[in-house]
Request: fold
Amino acid sequence: MPAFSSHYALEDIVELSQRDDLGEDTPVLRATSDARTAGYDAVCVPLTNEKWKARWTELCILDPEESPDKLVIEQRAEAWRSKPAFFRDEVTISRLEEAENLIPLISDWLELDTSDDWVRHDAEIALQQELAFASYLNAQCAILPPPSNRTQVGSYARAINACLASIPYMELSVRIPIYDPATVLPGPSRSPSPVESAPPSSATGGTPPESNMTTWEMWDTIRTICGYNPRLTLALDLTPPLPLSSSVLDQWLAEPVRHIWLPASAFIANAKGYPVLTKGSQSFIRDIVKLQPNIILSGTRAKKHTRGGEPAYAQYVRHLEKTSPAVKAAQTAGTVENFALGYQDYLQAPLQPLMDNLQSITYQTFEQDPVKYRNYEEAIFFALSEWPTPGKVTLCVAGAGRGPLVARALKAIERSKREAFVYAVEKNPNAYVTLQERHREEWGDAKVKLLFGDMRTLEVPEKVDILISELLGSFGDNELSPECLDGASRFLKPDGISIPSSYTAYIAPLSSSKLYNETRATKDPKSLETPYVVMLHAINILSDNGGGISGTCGPQIQECWDFEHPRKDAALTEQGLPLTNSHNTRSAKLTFHIPNAGVLHGFAGYFEAVLYGHVGLSIHPDRMAQISKDMLSWFPLFIPLKDPLYLPADSELTVSLWRLTDVRKVWYEWYAEAFLPVPSSSVHSPIWRDTLSPMSPSAEHGSFLSPVVSTPTFVSSPLLDVPQLTLELPPQHSDKTREGVSLVKISQTALHNPGGQSSWIGL
Amino acid sequence: MPAFSSHYALEDIVELSQRDDLGEDTPVLRATSDARTAGYDAVCVPLTNEKWKARWTELCILDPEESPDKLVIEQRAEAWRSKPAFFRDEVTISRLEEAENLIPLISDWLELDTSDDWVRHDAEIALQQELAFASYLNAQCAILPPPSNRTQVGSYARAINACLASIPYMELSVRIPIYDPATVLPGPSRSPSPVESAPPSSATGGTPPESNMTTWEMWDTIRTICGYNPRLTLALDLTPPLPLSSSVLDQWLAEPVRHIWLPASAFIANAKGYPVLTKGSQSFIRDIVKLQPNIILSGTRAKKHTRGGEPAYAQYVRHLEKTSPAVKAAQTAGTVENFALGYQDYLQAPLQPLMDNLQSITYQTFEQDPVKYRNYEEAIFFALSEWPTPGKVTLCVAGAGRGPLVARALKAIERSKREAFVYAVEKNPNAYVTLQERHREEWGDAKVKLLFGDMRTLEVPEKVDILISELLGSFGDNELSPECLDGASRFLKPDGISIPSSYTAYIAPLSSSKLYNETRATKDPKSLETPYVVMLHAINILSDNGGGISGTCGPQIQECWDFEHPRKDAALTEQGLPLTNSHNTRSAKLTFHIPNAGVLHGFAGYFEAVLYGHVGLSIHPDRMAQISKDMLSWFPLFIPLKDPLYLPADSELTVSLWRLTDVRKVWYEWYAEAFLPVPSSSVHSPIWRDTLSPMSPSAEHGSFLSPVVSTPTFVSSPLLDVPQLTLELPPQHSDKTREGVSLVKISQTALHNPGGQSSWIGL
Reply:
């Protein structure tokens, strides 16, 4: 659950200092004990006071030209620059015990991003001085004043980066308004097309919501310049009234929000006069609490609201937290969220059951899944029930593990009242011991025969009607189910059934500074090119379902490829094995619409499988609830990018992904390109237009270069004027994207994991 | 000088094979000897023939569905995929000696970028097979067929990258048409503004020249996906007729162009019937020969032109080479180009005369500069001539080295007929020995007094009138001239003169795959953040002098900052030294217009200095010829980027650069952001517009966030509707850039060299 802090302004401290009952206490110590009594975990107090502001202003701002003792002041300023230090009466705290449970606010009048080089330079020296002092007093975190001048946000960020380098341990939290109210209209966040001729926005007219990304923009620039330093965090300022639409606020869920600045002025009074938040703020708080931020309440003692007094504010936020869907799900037994507690955003190397023999404890964890095996039993039951030919049906469980599917198969057989026999194949010698035990004690020779060996090589006494396997990974094929079933299909009858009968891989582009830092943390460059299994938590899916300005974009989550079993008319060896693995290579090129500016850190990978008929398994976010609600066995795949890719609002992201194979292994390679739609008048050629438009039909008929280049008439005479050349263009080369729209390429990633250099998939 | 190769088509080889005078020769061996006789260095021959094409097509293209023995063919295809190999009669060469002086052409019918996954997969296997065979025969380089399908260029590139990994040593050269004639109009390359309402381009109408960047675009995507592999090069195909405007072709000068494909059909006949090239092609050849490409002439035996025969083509190109400005300059003694032979694009760590004591040989190299010392003598002469007060003038040479400036000072004194005395200060004990020798043998006590020590600490007997120094680096201040002269100014009279009196640093954005690979080659990450001194050669300056669509862009080469000497009314210690080095910090934020798409690899750094009055020194490309022609002492600075930054046509590049200092060192930090102008209707807020517009005046008055956030009325009620908020916007917030234009941020680099981590400048 989140912590709560109480903000004490300078006036509050002054007021406390004037109280005659202070005794041994300093004003700040008294503030801290008062706050604790009021149920807060900490206080948030300005580090310096007016005296320091006055001195710094005299030294660094007031123009010496106008002062008589100009040179004297400049001398003092230089003396300060060479040895920056406070006088005792310029700071609000000076003892270790004062700094406990206290979050210092750095002087908010420091002009860290003024356009005046010299003032900015001195502000940076002062910032270093204040942070060094806070660090001396063992403060764990300091809150920095917000950037205010976008043209100098780079200088602001560079100064902070220098502080992160010179001040050890301490966390620096940049205070940023959640958005810029001056630029927002309430309502849904869908952006108007850049190419619809919208009325030019003006200071007097309303403006669409994308523009409230500008404060996130500044944050993104700052943290990028600071190299995603893990000690750089956010103090998100909720002073501005929140719009009802949340989608423009979602990007904050993917950022290191450590503090929420929530002033009493952001609350309204309900019918009874108690402080409550607006709908927009309520839903945002409910979302953001999953990051467990420290909530800094400000102005709660000012009696802004007639009822409830100081405690009412924190009580209300606690109430919101209790009604947060994320928090509730995490507290409900049987949900993935609950099952995954402690695993959020934690990178796991995917299992490699083919290469490694799993431990019994691993089998046990997965056997706990109430949904997966229920669905398998259903699928087997329907397959048996609908099996056309009368008489005995033979089943084979390929990869029986400790036997859960065998047990379910027997249940299904019983329910279906069919006569049937089950072969159970397993290559893990240790699990095979467990199988033998269950075979003797539960199943018996009449119903089950155990076979020890690799399903790709071992011989089965007879061909079977139904082949049952559970070889799926988070991305469907990523644990080599296709390759294994190629082997197992040897002992499936031509008209036999495979359960699963097919599976599909899906991806969606995501942003997550947490996951980006996690992948970098290992210091191993390969870790930036390795897919992981992750319970995604502090992330934001960047795509939406809009077709995009160009009209060529797919849905928010898109299909990469699928596999079907059994394979139809394949060329095989006498042993019934494929001669090569070529048929299991795949490639996908997908285009996503990115409605709001964001940073791409990688892709979420999901799978959906058809077990039999209408019975399936899915971790596709939009469909898992219908197909396999509360299934626990698979977290999504996280496919990382080595370097973040910045995506402007309304850009279009094209992702190329390959499943590749050689004799030793199977692996994925991927890269991405970003495009921005602009009016065709800005771009200069029909070819440019339709060739840069991903998946444009005209591209299908391939090269137009070759004919042009190879036709001698084009080049036989330099006098040939080029307008004739353009006439040679086949007409279908124009307008492949929506009329009037062109896509300009703006950036590209590297090719990731070439040659499977960091491949975790071995044959 | 470039090499020349002769292209033999398959027909040519067949024809040769039918000759009865072959004797021991194979057709290819005969072709090679014929070519050598005709004055060529090598031949360029297809590696495979029609037999191979037929087999591959049958196995991989023809649809088995239609063939009776469908499965048989699929079996054979699988057999080939599992062990790809040639039959002897499918290839044109088979012996080592045949492959000597031969450049194999990979089968150009391989559909490496078809949209059909399966055909593409088989084409890649065939490509691997052909390259492996060429490598077996020790071919040094193979030429790959051009990409033809932009939608699959990623797959084409991934396949090449896989080959680079699996085939050792061999260079793979991608054949790319220099541009796409179908998309070009002749004439100047200035692009129309994306926001002028140009008539929408269509297949029938003409189209502006940016679009001929598309073949470069493809190349850029390919080499980016191949990670700038140094074994990936370009075979630039000059088949298309070249436009007169060259600016759109300049980007090729920054790429690894190893071959020029030049068919006889690209030549026209001159009055006498001899083959010559068009104006556009002539000037491009003259430029590109500086990269010393191998020129592959094709079709020269087809008698396309009535006069001159086969030799005429090569002769003509050799003639162009002789008249190439770059080549001529390199051959003219006394030019920088000649002086720098062998140093082109070679990275040198800048000198650090303050930290290191230079070697005598280093002094000697620089003393050879005929121009630098002449200009110093001129400056001193004019300074003395115009010196107001009569009587003796005292000079001080701060950093006398081996004495060249002392000698020039004495010459200037003689010419000026002034009575004068020279103090010579030097801290290098070794150079000081040379000084003593010259003092005894040439100068004598009457004219010169030597002083041994650091100019920042040593005492000089009297204050001097004129302070002379040569402490400048390629970037002006980068060898710490400002810091040194701060020290030396102690012994300059208040109204004294400093020679130089000022100097300015300039930068321009550049593209150079060579320099990018050079900086990466060291494998030391710091090398990617260290400025180097480089004789820039295979580069392209990406900016132009256009103000840009937004109207906020500066010129092609822009000023960062300057330094003036002596400093006016500075605060100093009793010893006359500054208390801190704060006054020598600088920062610059510059915006460049990028007319054509390109990749930013770093920045060229230049300096210009005023020695005295109208006498100066400059390596600013536009002004060096007037100010200090043929000066040899300084190559430009190269300020690298860690990762290339892609810039679309008509984008705007904002560069932030800082000169920073602490007690130990001085260093630079830098980063860049790219923006794309779009019509305002596409972007969603007046604030967005003017705050993202670099250097927009409105930004000067700083924050609009603070007022908005702090004004209680904004937040006191959630019922406040936001249109009112927008009304609060000060009117000057609209239209800061040119009417109707907005800038959308599209990408950003990291902050480079933070904290001077790879600083090469020590105090």
Summary: The first strand of chain B starts at residue 3 and ends at 7. The domain at 363-470 of chain B is CATH 3.40.50.150 (Rossmann fold).
